[in-house]
Amino acid sequence: MTSSSIWPGPATRDNALRQLSEFLPQAGSDYAALRGYDLKDHPHVSRLSPFLRHRILTEDEVLRTVLRSYDRDTAQKFVDEVLWRTYWKGWLEMRPGVWRDYRLGVQAALNRIQTESGLRSEWEAACSGRTEIECFNIWARQLTHDGYLHNHARMWFASIWIFTLRLPWELGADFFLRHLYDGDPASNTLSWRWVAGLQTRGKAYIAEAWNIEKFTKGRVPRPEDLAANPAPLDGPPSPDPSSLDLALEWDMHCPTGLLITEEDLSPSDIFPETDRLQAIAHYHATQDRSPLAVSPHVVSFVSDAIEACCASLPGQATHCPTPDEVVTWAIAHDLKQIVTAYPPVGPTADALAALEPRLEDAGIALARIARPYDADAWPRARAGYFKFRKTSGSFLERLAQDAAA
Ligand SMILES: Cc1cc2nc3c(=O)[nH]c(=O)nc-3n(C[C@H](O)[C@H](O)[C@H](O)COP(=O)(O)OP(=O)(O)OC[C@H]3O[C@@H](n4cnc5c(N)ncnc54)[C@H](O)[C@@H]3O)c2cc1C
Predict the structure, then answer these.
(1) Ligand 1 neighbourhood includes 52 CB (under 6 angstroms)
(2) Which residues, 6 or more positions from 201, have their beta carbon under 8 angstroms from its beta carbon?
(3) Which of 199, 336, 349, 208 is nearest to 277 (CA)?
(4) What is the DSSP string of 224-236?
(5) Distance in Å, CA 106 to ligand 1 centroid
(6) Which of 147, 151, 149, 152 is nearest to 139 (CA)?
């Protein structure tokens, strides 16, 4: 693996499970008390996000594991954070236009960079950690080197990017997506919108020097001259949620191939009867996370993870580097249907949407199969997080009961 740092280690399920079990003793009251501290080597958070992002581990199994070890109250903070991930995914799934607008915003900002040399040099200075704000520079270098930032550092970084450096927020979100091992369309886009004051309109997150000093325990220099009381960014209200139509089953009686994507690398949970499959292929959309080059450490982590997943399935999986090659593969195997784990809003879903008409022309159906966890949780993300959590009571209860069984 061509990684610039030791973490996250091999992109395998064994490694993910080992990290989960090592973190488990800290997932209760320690996590509740200490998770806000951004310290060297991040001892108080799980760093499971690259595995959760690609579903090498699922939210469902992480929640069950934690609820098996702790009562609901003790585990509440950790459960809440995992649920934030689920909530963002459901929220965006019901409002795909927000992702489309973000992508257009990135392209518009990149166009500006071509013609505005001042903006270009400020953006380059921010991405390479050469601004006047030393803590920001440290985080920029940490992000490009480690592929990770603590949640609090992400909030401070995004806030300084938007309100002190006054750079377009979409370029900051794009910088994250290019370098984070856990780069995720929903968590990233919506968290940046939240910091900017676009997600909860009129309520921005403003980084403050005392807070940075306290929660880094002075590990980074205290920043001077951060923007004080800046106005939140202005934008259109969030669209109303659309309804979700998530399929849980597929026709098992026609010649079917399985397509693996980076959106879900535990396909045997969804497709247990792999012996019924005619063929298996994999398609990678990692490079499409950004119009610019995605960091090689992210590309190789994802590619290793996909290979490890395919190695755990029977038979040889074909790599289809382009959507066209997915069509060629399906025709070569006389498939009538391709099944794939439901790809949430993002580059993979975009690629599959573009592919579908070509498959239809060839008489091949594309079935996107959701996980019961998502089908249960996502439609609850109609309004704010706390409403989501409230309506998730019975769902969480069931998870806790299953974990106890
Ligand atoms: C501006 C900004 C951008 C972000 N971009 C991403 C991104 O691209 N991908 C991503 O996975 N997360 C993103 N997050 C959310 C969060 O920062 C990371 O999920 C978390 O820091 C991952 O580290 P961890 O696994 O050690 O988290 P832990 O604290 O150990 O939490 C456990 C798990 O809960 C989930 N989680 C925790 N905090 C959040 C949160 N605030 N929102 C959503 N899920 C959360 C993650 O899946 C995480 O692995 C972003 C947050 C901000 C403020």
Answers:
(1) yes
(2) 232, 235, 237, 238
(3) 336
(4) PS---SPPPPP-P
(5) 21
(6) 149
- Compute the distance from residue 351 Cα to the ligand 1 centre, in Å: 25
Q: How many helices (H) and strands (E) does the chain have?
A: 19, 5
Q: How is residue 19 written in tokens?
A: 């990290």
**Which SS3 state, helix, strand or coil, does residue 37 take?**
coil
> Using an 8 Å Cβ cutoff, are 28 and 80 in contact?
no
Beta strands in 141-212 (DSSP E): none
Percent of the chain beyond pLDDT 90?
91
288: tokens are 């499409």
Cα of 350 to ligand 1 centre, how many Å?
A: 23
84 CB less than 6 Å from ligand 1?
A: yes
> Does 158 sit in the ligand 1 pocket, CB within 6 Å?
yes
Q: Is 198 in the pocket of ligand 1 (CB under 6 A)?
A: no
Residues 6+ apart with CB under 8 A from 266: 13, 55, 56, 57, 58, 309
Beta bridge partners of 318: 281
State the pLDDT confidence band at 195, using cuts at 50, 70 and 90: very high
Per-residue pLDDT, 1: 37
- What is the atom index within ligand 1 of the atom nearest the CA of 180? 8
Q: How far is the CA of 31 from the centre of ligand 1 (A)?
A: 14
Contact 191 CB / ligand 1 (< 6 Å): yes
Compute the distance from residue 42 Cα to the ligand 1 centre, in Å: 13
Rounded to the nearest whole angstrom, what is the distance from the C-alpha of residue 191 to the centroid of ligand 1? Answer: 9
* Structure confidence at residue 5 (pLDDT): 53
Cα 187 to ligand 1 centre (Å): 7
Report the alpha-carbon angle 354-342-20, nearest 5. Answer: 130
Round to whole Å and give the CA distance between 320 and 308. 16
- All structural domains of the chain, each given as residue ranges with its CATH number in brackets, are 13-93+394-404 (no CATH), 98-216 (1.10.579.10), 256-369 (3.40.50.620)
> Cβ(81) to ligand 1 under 6 A?
yes
pLDDT tens readout for residues 13-25: 999 999 999 999 9
Q: Is the CB of 155 under 6 A from ligand 1?
A: yes
Rounded Cα distance, 315 and 371, in Å: 24
